[in-house]
Write a structure and sequence with these properties.
This protein is α+β, with helices and mostly antiparallel strands and 148 residues long. The protein has helices at 41-53, 71-75, 80-89, 117-130; strands at residues 13-18, 24-29, 60-67, 92-96, 108-115. A hairpin with a 5-residue loop joins strand 1 (13-18) and strand 2.
Length: 148
């Protein structure tokens, strides 16, 4: 990992592995942030969408983190890159760029990927590729978290 980039008091994650995705390990925040009750309206809206999508049978969530400065690259001009990733993978991608996650730091943003396991893995791989083969992702010192 990159020293000093893992947030202090990093969130606890629940992990699950799906053999249909080659054993990819999915990680979901136990605190489920962002919540629909988040004081930031944009984060609250993302929380509402995430909770609604997770009601569908077989749907999973994978949470990871990226550098704030890479948000524009992930979104692309007029959202083209972001829309292309969603369309090509079938994964719903939420870049919570309105504010850092509760544990900080300020230069990190959470990405939540939602869909069927195969779509979520494809969404993660697409995001990884767009962000300079992972160089725009944040790697923690703590291996229990997932930072892209």
């Amino acid at each position: 990992g990159l020293p000093g980039l893992a947030p202090p008091g990093a969130p606890t994650f629940e992990t699950s592995k799906h053999e249909s995705t080659g054993g990819f390990v999915f990680k979901r925040r136990l605190d489920q942030w962002p919540l629909p009750s988040d004081p930031n309206p944009a984060a609250a809206l993302s929380g509402k969408h995430l909770f609604r999508l997770l009601e569908a049978p077989g749907t999973i969530r994978h949470d990871c983190f990226m550098r704030k400065k890479m948000c524009n690259r992930a979104i692309g001009p007029k959202g083209a890159t972001f829309k292309g990733m969603e369309e090509s993978t079938g994964c719903r991608i939420y870049i919570i760029d309105a504010r850092p996650p509760p544990e900080g730091p300020d230069d990190v943003r959470q990405v939540s990927l939602v869909g069927l396991p195969s779509s979520v893995r494809a969404g993660y791989e697409a995001m990884y590729e767009v962000l300079d083969d992972g160089r725009g992702l944040v790697s923690p010192d703590d291996a229990s978290t997932s930072y892209i």
